[in-house]
Design a protein that fits this description.
two-stranded antiparallel ribbon; alpha/beta; nine-stranded mixed sheet; globular; 38% helix
Length: 398
């Protein structure tokens, strides 16, 4: 069965949920603050408003479980931002002692989990999610509008003058755009840590060429009523429970498909969180993928201005004046090592590269292992928390 045949099937299913009710969450879907509180941590929910009307939730873990109340004052703030298909829950879903959000809170940091426009923790003042105009954005808007208001909200609430930013995948792409287009925000960031930094995609040029130029799949789907890449929450819940609940990773359809996409590492799949992880996969706009496609086609970190086939207009990475740490997975098929090293060379030429290194010793560490690897704490998060402390101690004078 071809790609378009599968798309027709999904379109028919999507039409069953054509009203605004399609965006209601299943009753079993716990909010991120409730997940944080259920783990024994305090949680707060804040909102930031972008200049173009999007309302973005931030989920805050102000302190760790064992820390006294007095420790809430004048703490170092860390903002963590998700990638494509992600949200703030990515950094707490593995639970205490494993997820980065909880481990940073237990280490004494004021942890803020950001959400970029489009996921289910965001809205718009005037546009409903069933309005195509709601989805008229790429990560250009994430960088130009969303990241700046997230940073400003954290600093306004905490009273701090700067924060440390950690991004995963598209969360790194968005930060680089912020620093390039809004260089005044360099002064508000102590240091930046990029997990699976997603800037160059030469290894995916063939795929972008096939999907966007030969097959023209995005235009074909738009013409048939698909506003986003993703299923409505209720339908996603049914799909996951029917297709993704098998405990054996190699027999789980969703795990098998994902591992083939991001890099195979079945040994690090935690079957206890697979259903939650897949149910919380977020929708993404077509323009996000067109934008990544244009970068792959042109081999330039370019804006989407003038469309996918338009002239490449590079973002000015020399505007970045923040110490940058890049961490890659040896088996990451999305943010591939050679592409991360290309970015590292550019940042090194401008003097902003703090370090670039493999995320851990595992040769199979892939794109989603940064979030959901079964042994994420010893493999990656414990050293990462130590790295955050070193960077704060080294650059907090900025």
């Amino acid at each position: 069965m071809g790609i378009r045949s599968w798309c027709i099937i999904l379109l028919c299913l999507n039409n069953l949920f054509e009203s605004e009710s399609q965006f209601r969450l299943p009753e079993s879907y716990k909010s991120v603050p409730n997940l944080i509180r259920a783990a024994g941590y305090p949680a707060e929910e804040h909102r930031a408003l972008t200049p173009d009307g999007y309302v973005l939730q931030l989920h805050r873990i102000p302190k760790g479980r064992a820390l006294p109340r007095s420790s809430d004052v004048n703490k170092r703030a860390v903002l963590i931002v998700h990638g494509v298909f992600g949200c703030s829950s990515n950094f707490i879903l593995m639970g205490p002692g494993k997820s980065l959000g909880f481990m940073l809170a237990d280490a004494g940091y004021d942890v803020w989990l950001g959400n970029l426009r489009g996921n289910r923790h965001t809205a718009h003042l005037n546009l409903t999610r069933s309005n195509p105009k709601f989805w008229d954005y790429s990560f250009h808007e994430h960088g130009k509008y969303d990241v700046p208001v997230l940073i400003d909200k954290v600093l306004a609430v905490t009273g701090q003058s700067s924060l440390l930013y950690i991004g995963h995948s598209m969360g790194t792409t968005s930060f680089f755009i912020t620093a390039a287009l809004r260089p005044e925000y360099n002064d508000k960031v102590v240091a930046f840590i990029g997990l699976a930094p997603a800037v160059y995609f030469d290894h995916m040029k063939w795929l972008a060429d096939f999907l966007l130029k030969s097959l023209k799949i995005v235009n074909w789907l738009r013409e048939r009523g698909f506003m986003t890449l993703g299923l409505p929450p209720t339908l996603m819940d049914l799909f996951v429970r029917g297709m993704c609940s098998t405990k054996t990773p190699r027999d789980n359809f969703c795990v098998f498909m994902m591992q083939n996409l991001v890099g195979e590492n079945f040994d690090q799949v935690d079957p206890n969180i697979t259903t939650q992880m897949m149910t919380r996969v977020q929708p993404a706009s077509w323009r996000q993928f067109e934008h990544y496609g244009k970068i792959a086609l042109t081999s330039v970190f370019t804006s989407l201005e003038d469309g996918v086939l338009g002239e490449a207009k590079p973002y000015n990475l020399s505007n970045i004046r923040v110490p940058v740490t890049l961490l890659y997975g040896e088996n990451d098929q999305i943010a591939e090592k050679s592409q991360v090293m290309r970015l590292a060379r550019e940042l090194n030429n401008t003097g902003m590269l703090e370090q670039v290194e493999s995320a851990c010793t595992s040769p199979k560490f892939n794109h989603v292992d940064f979030l959901f690897a079964k042994d994420i704490a010893p493999l990656f998060n414990k050293p990462l928390v130590q790295q955050v402390e070193k960077l704060y101690n080294k650059y907090s004078y900025r």
